[in-house]
TrEMBL record:
Residues 257-386 form the Putative amidase domain. Gene3D superfamilies: endopeptidase domain like (from Nostoc punctiforme), PPE superfamily. Residues 288-314 are annotated as: Disordered. This is Putative amidase domain-containing protein. It comes from Actinokineospora iranica. It holds the Pfam family Amidase_6.
Amino acid sequence: MITYQQLKDFDPQSFADAADDWLKLAKEAEASAEHLYERDGKALAENWADEVGEKARQTIRKVAQDFQAAGMSMRGVLSTLDGYADAIALCKRNLDSAVDFAVRSGLTVDADGQVTVPAGAEDQQLAERAQQSTALIADAVRDAAEIDKEAAASLARLIEPASITKVLTQEELRDEVLNKSVRDATASTLEMIKETMPLDAGPQEQAAWWSSLTKEQQDQYMKAAPVELHDMKGIPDSVRKDLIGNDGLNRVEMLRWVAEHGDTTHKDVPGMSNCTNFVSHAMRDGGGLPEEGDGQGWKNPDDWYTNRGEPGDRPYLPNNKDHSEPWAAAQNHHDYMLKHGGETVPVEQAKPGDIVYFKDKESIHHAAVVTAVMPDGEVVYTQHTPSLSSLGLNDRVPHNDIAIGSDVPIIVRPHPDWV
C-alpha cells in the first residue's frame, strides 16, 4: 500500500537501475542456456552415444532449460519494473500537480496529504478548491496503490517457471513461460499505464489532464493506450485524428478489432497458418481498408483480397484458392505493403497500427500487429497461430534466437496507395 508521502518521495531512477540489473542477468542466463544447448549438448551427442550418455545429455538439457526459463522470467521482471516505474512516475506527476494547485490557491497541504483552508480565510472559493485538491490527491494515491498491487501480483506469477521439473521442447517452454507469466507481465504493465488515465472523468477534467501533460508524456499515452485515449471525450480532435491516421487505414478501429479478436480464432482458416490472414482481416474488417485487385488472380502478387464466402466477402473461387498470396503469406504481405506506399521504420520508432514481421535466415515467416509501445520502448504486439495478445517483442526475440536461430523483427508502417 503506497502512502501520500511514499508517492511524494518516489524515485523512478532507482527502479530503472534495478531493471538494468535484471536485464544483465537475463542476458547472462540466455547466453548460458545457448552455450549449454549448442556446445555441451551437441558434444555429448557426438562423443557419448550410449544410454548413460543420453542421461547426461538430458541433465545438461534440463540445466540449459532452467537458465533459459530464468532468462524469460527475468525479462518479465524487467518489463514489470519498467512499467511500474513509468506508471508510478505518472501518478507522482498527477500528485505534484494537485499539490501545486492547492498551494497556488492559498491552501495548506500537510505531510499526510490533507488539504486545509487557512484559519480566517474569507475567500468563498477556497473550500471548493480544497475539496477539488483533496479529490485529485486521493485519486493519485489510489491509482498508485492499484498499480503497486498489480505489479506485486505480476512479480509473484513470474516465480512459477521455477517449479518446472521436466525437460520441455522449445514450443512447450514457450507456452509454459512466455505465453503465461511473462505475457501476463506485459499485459500488467499496460494496465498500470491505463490506471493513471482519468478514463471515467468528465470531458472537462479529461481536457485539463491532457493539457497539463508535457509533450513527451502525451506521446507516451498515444503509444501505450491509443484506443482508450481516443475514446476519452475531453481529448482534442487533433489528437484523435493523429491516432487514426490520414492514409485510409483507421488505426484506432484496427486496434479495437485486434483487441476483440486477438485471443480467439476469429476469421482463422482451418489447417492454415493464420498469422498474416489475421493481420489482413484486422486492416480490412477493423481498419476499414478496402481490398485491392479483381479477386481472380490467386498467384497475382499485386492483389490483396480474400474469398472466404463469409458476409461481406466474395464467393469461393472454383479452384478453391480463396485468398491472394499477399493476403495470407507473410513475405508476400510485407512486399505488397512496401510496394503500395508503406515504409520500413526502425524498431525504436514503432507505433500502434504498424505491422511487425519476423525474418529468419531465409525469409519472412511471421506477421503480427503492433498494439502498443511502452514508455521504455518495449514493442507490444498481437498475433494469430497461436492466438495471443500482449506479447513483448524484447521477450520473444531471445527465445526465437535460441529455438530457431536468428529471427529479426521488421517494422512496416502501411500507407495504402489504393485508397
